[in-house]
Amino acid sequence: MLINTVLLVTRELLPLLLLLVLMLQLQSAQKSRFLLLSVLLSTALVLLLAPWLALLTQLAEGNGLELLFVACYGVSLLALIILLTAKAGPFSPALVVITAQGLICGINLLLYSFTGIGNVDKGDSYWLGTLLALGIGLSIAVLWFHLLDELKRRTPALLLLMLLPACARQTIEALALLQQTGWLPGGQALWDSGVVVSEQSEAGVFLQAWFGYEATPDLIQLTGWLLTLILLSALGYRCYIRRVKNGL
Amino acid sequence: MTLQQALAALALCIPLAVEARQEFVLTLKDHLFNPAQLAVPAGQKIKIRLINLDAAPEEFESFPLNREKVVLGNSEAILYLGPLAAGEYPFFGDYHPDSAKGVLIVIPEAQWQQVQHVN
């Protein structure tokens, strides 16, 4: 239970923490206010939905939760596109990104907590595992923060470039969930890179959280992922050049 | 187009997306999958009705299948899969990975017809 909790909670927390660090770096001011507001909003939304989780999971032939997550990824992607094309990292879209990701992470953690909390045998392992995972996640987040800080200091545009893998991740996650619900056709895996980087390995978990790494992607997932990267690269580049020309 | 017409059109499209698929049942009791080896046909769209008979929730997880699905305690969920290539696709319960393990065995279509015929 202990090791499993560490693995599971780290896997859920990491995408949120990596995005949170990126959003913090994009904020020129009010970082503490942003952090506080995003935590409060995400927590409030999770608490608001908690009593309805059982009902939510049974909606749409048992796909209610997946459809909610697809909506979160969609909203997140739109907010990230606004950030990519905006003059300076605006406050509200960044808040929307973190709130949407926080909702996904919070619901998943809440569901997992049902197996540990209140269980005499597993309760201690659950809490200890959660604390350890929080420590691991925060350590990675601190390193990520300093890496992005260095990138920003050297070439500020690189920070905008880091939005692209985050956007591609939202797309591939939403597509995978839509396939899971049967709303999109599934397909056979194009390759299996699991022997090189397993999704269960430390590197696999990090890459998954960073750009939505899938060891066995199918055609729809790969196309969606690539299209997001290519189209948003072009869009971001156009906006950046226009801003440079205007001297902003 | 009015809102009602748009909703009606949308309602007509949904059954096309979720077309008829052969259904298989996978139950979970005492954190064990039953059957632990589930045979399904290759090259076909299928659905698996996942029935959790435990009081605790469980997450069906399979990396090769790209599926991750939470099923609350004493409830059920549907997993849409395929068409899959013949082979073995391991899966496990993310919340109890030590005990909840299984394999989806995807049988080539010709072989599947024979199995069906024998049954």
Report on the architecture of this protein:
The complex is a heterodimer of chains A (248) and B (119). Chain A is an all-alpha fold and 248 residues long. Helices cover 79% and strands 0% of the residues of chain A. Chain A contains 10 helices and no strands. Chain B is α+β, with helices and mostly antiparallel strands. Chain B has 2 helices and 9 strands. The longest helix of chain B is centred in the N-terminal third of the chain and has 15 residues. Chain B is elongated. Chain B starts with a helix and ends with a helix. Chains A and B meet through α3, α5 and α8 of A and β6 and β7 of B. Chain A: It comes from Rheinheimera lutimaris. Chain A: Keywords: Membrane, Transmembrane, Transmembrane helix.
Record the SSE blueprint.
The complex is a heterodimer of chains A (248) and B (119).
Chain A lengths: L1 H25 L4 H19 L3 H10 L1 H22 L5 H26 L6 H32 L1 H6 L1 H18 L21 H10 L7 H27 L3
Chain B lengths: L2 H15 L4 E8 L2 E3 L2 E5 L4 E7 L5 E5 L4 E5 L3 E7 L5 E7 L7 E7 L1 H10 L1
Parallel strand pairs in B: 1-4, 3-9
Antiparallel strand pairs in B: 1-2, 4-7, 5-6, 5-8, 8-9
Assembly annotation: heterodimer
Q: Which regions of chain A are unreliable across 5 or more consecutive residues at pLDDT < 50?
A: none
Radius of gyration of chain A: 19 Å
Annotation field: number of helices of chain A: 10
Q: How many strands appear in the DSSP assignment of chain A?
A: 0
Report strand % of chain A.
under 5%
Number of strands of chain B: 9
Order of helices and strands of chain A: HHHHHHHHHH
Assigned CATH architecture of chain B = Sandwich
Q: Kindly identify the CATH topology of chain B.
A: Immunoglobulin-like
Percentage of residues in helical conformation of chain B? 10-25%
Spatial ordering of strands, largest sheet of chain B: 3-9-8-5-6
Structural class of chain A: mainly alpha
How would you state the average pLDDT of chain A, rounded? 91
Distance N to C terminus of chain B: 51 Å
Protein name (chain A): FTR1 family iron permease
Keywords (chain A): Membrane, Transmembrane, Transmembrane helix
Transmembrane segments (chain A): 6-22, 34-55, 67-86, 93-114, 126-145, 219-240
Domain EfeO-type cupredoxin-like (chain B): 7-106
